[in-house]
Amino acid sequence: MSLQKVITEAVAAISSEGYTSPEQLEYWLTRLRRAAQDSLSPESVLRDQLEGALRAIYTKQVDQGAILKHHPGVSKFTLDKIKPQLHAQLTRRIMASADLIKRNRQAAIEKTLQRFSGWATSIPEGGSKNVEKVEEKSHIRKALAQLPFEERRVLIDQGHKLNSAINEAVAQQGGAIAVIWHSHWRQPGYNYRVDHKERDQKVYLLKSSWAKEKGLVKAGKVGYYEDVTSFGEEPFCRCFGQYVYNLRSLPEDMLTVKGKTALEDARRALSAS
Q1: What is the pTM of this model?
Q2: Pairing, β 240-244 against β 203-205
Q3: For position 205, what pLDDT does the model report?
C-alpha cells in the first residue's frame, strides 16, 4: 500500500477515534514505517547513481586532465604522480556520500513518524471534527516529500567537495603558495554565508610552500588559508579557490623584503634576456 494511502487511513482513523492507547499508536507507526521504507527508491540504485556522478567528475578532472587548466604550470607528470592519492579521495567521498544519504533517509522516516505521533496523541479519545485532514497529511509527509530534493542537493554538494579536495591536492603537490577565495554570493538565489562573502577575492597564504620556506612571503591581513574552513567543507558551500603559483601574482604586502628583491631580480633577468 502506498505511503499516501496509509497516511490517509491513519489520519482518518485517529480523527474518528482519537488517541486511545499506546498499542493503537504503535499499530499505525508500524504501518507508516513500512510504507515509508517501501516508498523510497532502493538504496543500491541511489548509490549507483551517486557513484556514477562522482566517478564522472573524477574521470573528467583527473583521468582527462581537465583540472590542469586551473593550475597553470602544474605538469601532467605531477598529476599522474598523485593519482593514487586522488583516487583515495574519490573512494572516501563515495563512502561518505552513501552514508549521508542513508542517514538522511532514516532521519526523514523518523521525522514523519514523530510528526504523526505528536499529532495523533493530541486528539482526544472519541475523535475530533475539527481536524484539517489535508493539512495534517501534508505536514506529516513533508520530510519524505522533500527527500528527493535533499538527495539531489547531497549529490551536488559531494561533487563540489570532491572537486575541492582534488584541487587542494594538486595545488599542494604543484607548489602553490597562496589561494584567492571566490564566493558565489552575487548569484541570485544562492544562500551564501556572510563570512564567506567577506572572504571573496581575499588572498590567503598557504602555510606549507616553497616561497614561505625561503622567507619570500608573509601572511596578509586575512592570514592563512589553513586557519579558515576550506572550500566546500561546510554543508552546501560552493566557494572555490584560484591557486597562486608565483610571487608576481601576490599583493605587495604579502612579499617580504627578500621576496620583493627576488621578484625584482627575476624581472631584470627577464628584461635582459
Answers
A1: 0.82
A2: unpaired
A3: 97
